[in-house]
Amino acid sequence: MKDVIVVVGAGQIGQAIARRVGAGKHVLLASLKEDEAIATAQAFLNAGFQVSTAVADVSCRESVQALVKTATSLGNISGLIHAAGVSPSQAPIEAILKVDLYGTALVLELFGAVMAPGGAGIVIASQSGHRLPALTPEQDGALATTAVEDLLKLDFLQPAQVRDELHAYQLSKRGNSLRVMAEAVRWGRRGARVNTISPGIIITPLANDELSGPRGASYRRMIDGCPVGRAGTPDEVGQLAALLMGPDGSFITGSDFLMDGGVTAAFKFGDLAQPLAQP
Running DSSP on this structure, what letter comes out for residue 202? Predict the structure, then answer.
């Protein structure tokens, strides 16, 4: 049977990774929007990839189960690229937690049960998870191991405890890296690996929404104030993901890779540690 690479979230980052690891394999592009998946698939077909599409809502168990069924019908699942998500300027608190936190845990659970030996997964988290203040060990453990259907019932994820959309996003992305660490143990029993990448500002439609949204000034300040002095590109994320998913990354699992141009370093030890000036 042919090896299958499943891309959940067919945006720019998911596409960039799939281009690096999908040659000679069947690429299944899954998106919430059918037209987005079809347009992306045409570009991949034009570039010589074998590709098909699916519509999937990561916040719905039945939808992800259907995606798993479709994927396994195509061949052995040797790769999972989970890049679906919404940003603080795109959705309210409840939707961010449902898509970014619950949805990621659900995808990891269901695809972790069918990954082929030697397979590898990448989850796209965010630099935001690294700037959330430390949680308690109990909270970390709960984000990592609570049963998926009970995850959003945790007391510190309730409306009175989540300050705003950015806080919900930070909690979700911290949860993603912790969840992957725990899932790496389960995936390892199948001979498969999984890691997270926590990108900084990567120029995509999502990032452009943030740059033009209410937090735009903070985003531009991060770009200008980071050691690299620019935003990143999806292809740069793809290069790291290809390492982690390929044979050169065979000793790496359960790890999170921060690639933010030094933004987090500048928040801790550089000019970004100073508060944003108010108009």
Answer: B
